[in-house]
Amino acid sequence: MAATSSLSKMRRQEERLAWLFVTPIVLGILIFQLYPTIFSLYVSFTEWNLLTPMRWVGWRNFVDLFTNDRNFGPAMYNSFVFTVGTVLPGTALALIFAVLLNRHIRGRGLYRAIYFIPVVAPTVAVAILWSWIYEPQYGILNWMLGLVGVKGPKWLGSSDWAMFSIIIMSIWQGLGYNIVIFLAGLQSISPDLYEAASIDGANGMRQFWHITVPLLSPVTFFVVVLSVIGGFQVFAAPFVMTAGGPANATITVVMQLYKEAFQFQRMGVASAMAYILFIIIVALTAVNLSLQKYWVFYEEGE
Amino acid sequence: MATVAQQSASARSVAQASRTINRQSVGNILIHLILILCAVVMLFPLLWLVSTSLKSPGKQFVFPPQLFPNPVYWQNYTELFKIAPMGHYLWNSFEIAILSTLGVCLSSAIAAFAFARMRFRGREVLFVVLLGTMMIPFQVTVIPTFVIMRWLGWIDTHASLIVPNFFGSAFSVFLLRQFYRTIPQDLVDAATIDGAGYLRIFWEIFIPLGMPALATVAVFNFLGSWNDLFGPLIFLNTQAKMTVTLGLTYLQGRAGTGGGRWGIIMAGSLLGIIPMLLLYAFGQRYFVQGLARAGLKG
């Protein structure tokens, strides 16, 4: 009897202490996640400039964004183009290089280390560097193109090429990140499978399509979902390289949100945009999760 | 007879093996060529950054471009510190990144320990909520956070960027909890028998044994803090309080339109990149481990 009561006393103590330990993170969730999420939902239905009281406007901010706003449409379109333009080639390239690196070749660690360097550099600094590379008159890129007789475009200064230029830079910066994730995935595939396939006479290409691709699909899935979410949130690169120009050619959803909120003090409109972004991200995650069961292959026992 | 047959068979297999090796080595050379080409593409822009930052104004526009500037022109760096409070930028970035990282590590580790090793009511629900908050994009919370900071009077102070980290981060808690669950229960039991309480078990067993995971959390948070633009952009207004990333966006305007412009801008960018390269050089395996863990166990 005494033992049970002291046990339950210990359990109570454990419980109290555990709650004490999670107090910071619980407060953090409440103050910096849940409260802001609810608050900005409310703000998205109001007109508010931070100074005068909020005015309830119902769905007007959302309706305006889709019918009246001259910048939101291009921003959505550009974010979509950026996302597709970086995710598809970026994932494919990363997969190819990861497969090449996964062989027992000399200098493997060195290659991997080099490819990862742009990932750790601040995007702001990298974007400034690429602005210099893309410089139409004195930039090294157009000089190199000149060597092979091509007259390079104005890159960031051209509304036709600006988004393409930002996409190329972003692929360059993000490649190493995805390579490392793919490499980790490749290392979890049993070498026995490749050995068995070679004995059966399957060549490298067949092994790639019939072993590597299906077994790596959970990792591919992870990389794609993460890159798509990151793509829709792109901000620093266009902010630094083009400020959204020329003529809105590179304005993105998050840049437009920043302008509405912190330059024009239109908090209601900005919050509505944030919620549209939120819905897109949740929807993409959900679509990907539901598609996952059709094409993602998990090894048995995992 | 038998030996001759064996010998010829082994000769055949040696010839076969050498053919395979030949084909393999041709393949290997091809693969190395591709990998080296990619390495050049990855490194060249950074070399070009260093090179431009060390060129005199006139030499930046000389064709064909020189990769190795001669003479080396250090004045871009002195000019940089003259036209912008570069020392402040760098110091501020260090201060904010170090304190933020410290805060995230402390609060996340203790919470991760409770989630991994202690029983309390609501644990599972709380953990699911915690994971759920990782889906909320920063853009949704930024305006209310700005309102909170304004209410606290923390706009244009570093507190607005540092203090929220002292509440931990969901991702860090998640990563640490996964690791803490792998620490053997025997160690905990032995310490309990010796009369150690939970706090001591956390401090003397989980902190030291969990160092690899904690280092991963630390390097990622340091990197994230240093490279962040959006936070400093909305919270900081005074030049002397700005971080490197925010300062660099102003540098483009300050460097003027003269011939020295790009040399100075590249010098500033390089100073913004170098600390991250050093962090990467010393903590490489934590980056790799962290990505592998987040990617595969997530």
- The helix content of chain B, as a percent range, equals over 70%
Low-confidence parts of chain A lasting 5 or more residues at pLDDT below 50? none
Shape of chain A: flat
User: What order do the SSEs of chain A take from the amino end to the carboxyl end, as H and E?
Assistant: HEEHHHHHHHHHHH
Task: Measure the end-to-end span of chain B.
Answer: 63 Å
Extended strand count of chain B: 0
Helix content of chain A: over 70%
Under the CATH scheme, the architecture of the largest domain in chain A is: Orthogonal Bundle
Beta content of chain A:
under 5%
Question: Could you give a short account of the major beta sheet of chain A?
Answer: 2 strands, antiparallel
Q: How many separate domains make up the residues of chain A? A: 2
CATH superfamily of the largest domain in chain B: MetI-like
| Annotation field: number of helices of chain A | 12
Descriptive overview:
The complex is a heterodimer of chains A (302) and B (298). Chain A is mainly alpha-helical and 302 residues long. Chain A has two domains: 2-43; 70-124 and 160-295, MetI-like fold (Orthogonal Bundle), CATH 1.10.3720. Helices cover 73% and strands 1% of the residues of chain A. Chain A has twelve helices and two strands; from the N terminus they run αββααααααααααα. Chain A is flat and about 70 Å long. Chain A starts with a helix and ends in a 7-residue tail after the last helix. The model of chain A has no long low-confidence stretch (mean pLDDT 90). With 298 residues, chain B is mainly alpha-helical. Chain B has two domains: 2-53; 75-297, MetI-like fold, CATH 1.10.3720.10. Chain B has 13 helices and no strands. Chain B has helices at residues 2-53, 75-83, 86-117, 123-133, 138-152, 159-162, 170-180, 185-193, 198-209, 211-227, 230-235, 244-254, 261-297. Chain B is flat. Classes of the chains: A mainly alpha (302), B mainly alpha (298). At the A-B interface, α1, α3, α4, α5 and α7 of A face α1, α3, α4, α5 and α9 of B.
